[in-house]
Design goal:
Blueprint: E1 2-8, E2 11-18, E3 23-27, H1 38-44, E4 49-53, H2 72-86, E5 91-96, H3 98-109, E6 114-120, H4 131-148, H5 150-161, H6 175-194, H7 196-200, H8 206-209, E7 214-219, H9 226-238, E8 243-245, H10 251-254, H11 256-268
Parallel strand pairs: 3-4, 3-5, 5-6, 6-7, 7-8
Antiparallel strand pairs: 1-2, 2-4
Helix pairs in contact: 1-11, 2-3, 4-5
């Protein structure tokens, strides 16, 4: 595995590269760490040059200015710069949760850079009938975080969304997992305070994406839950039929080999 940093406006992005073959960029959800995609990247490295990275504001991708509200388009520009640094050939992209919103914006604005996108459970809550509720929840979670800290805020958010906060770095876990969880604890606060409100109101550009090389997917184990509902709403918005990938919202981490096999099929079209 090779690692490096890429200077972008307002941040310094940490990235990892594994494997050989056509480029595949992985974009994870808010508060994540590139190590979360490590097992999946290893499973895909035989057929792809897999690029994973920590999004701006994460522990290893520090901001170079004062923290401020972040936008989906700003993160999509980061992804574009990573692809440009990787070469001139269009790349495959796998993106999950808020990373999927970033990838949808990247594909809409820079279709020449994306060979095929698999967008996993994009949380476009503003497309849901109860959008106002989720906007209020995002603001309440930010308010709780400022008053009481990240733990109570994530518990409040997780109770309604079904997305839990990362566990404590238990001494019995492998060292790389403990290191990852320690970094993610810091990442979650940045994501909650400066991403959640703006990301939750993002709506993908239907006109730009209707004929794009795009697959929407949800986890087999999230049927009927909020993230599945959001995926269905995005699919209706774009006129697509969603596919299914193994596991829940982090199926790529729980069962990376099984997930990689299904993802390869979707990327191949």
């Amino acid at each position: 595995m090779d690692t490096g940093h890429l200077d972008v406006p307002g941040a310094k992005l940490y990235f990892e590269v594994r494997g050989t073959g056509p480029a595949l960029l992985i974009i994870l959800g808010g508060g994540s760490d590139a190590a979360m995609a490590g097992p999946l990247a290893e499973a895909l490295a035989g057929g792809f040059t897999v690029i994973t990275y920590d999004r701006r504001g994460a522990a290893r991708s520090p901001l170079t200015g004062r923290p401020a509200e972040q936008r989906v388009g700003e993160h999509a520009d980061d992804a574009l710069r990573l692809l440009e640094a990787a070469g001139s050939t269009p790349a495959h992209v796998f993106a999950t949760h808020s990373g999927a919103l970033i990838a949808l914006d990247l594909l809409a604005r820079h279709p020449e850079r994306v060979r095929r996108l698999v967008a996993h459970e994009p949380p476009a809550f503003d497309l849901l009938p109860d959008a106002a509720h989720w906007r209020r929840l995002a603001q309440e979670a930010v308010d709780v975080c400022r008053r009481e800290g990240i733990g109570p805020a994530m518990r409040k958010f997780g109770e309604e969304t079904g997305v839990s906060a990362p566990p404590e770095p238990n001494p019995g876990l492998p060292q790389w997992v403990r290191d990852m969880l320690t970094r993610m604890s810091a990442n979650m606060e940045t994501s909650l305070l400066y991403e959640m409100r703006s990301f939750s109101t993002f709506i993908p550009d239907a006109r730009a994406l209707r004929d794009a090389p795009l697959v929407l997917a949800s986890g087999a184990d999230t049927r009927g839950r909020l993230m599945h509902r959001a995926t269905l709403a995005v699919a209706e918005h774009l006129g697509l039929e969603p596919a299914e990938l193994p596991g829940d919202y982090v199926g790529y981490l729980r069962s990376p080999s099984e997930f990689a096999t299904a993802l390869r099929d979707l990327l191949s079209g």
